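Worked example 2:
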Amino acid sequence: MNCAQRLLPLATLLVLSNSMVAHAGSVTVGGVSEAIATNRALAKVPSGKTVTDTSCEVIGTAGNSSTYRCTVTWE
């Protein structure tokens, strides 16, 4: 049995198992407020997907102002 014949069952298994796994996604968006950044990120979630997590972090900028970076994760 040559190498290709031995690898074919493994390759087939990987392709089939990969197509049956639910893939999660995420998007990260910035904004001048936490609410704006969160809403912008939520607007990018594909229709039919369920949001599983939302998180934000404050990004310091020059002076006393801050921006926000929010990530929304879905499955």
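The CA atoms of residues 32 and 62 lie 13 Å apart. DSSP finds two helices and three strands in the chain.
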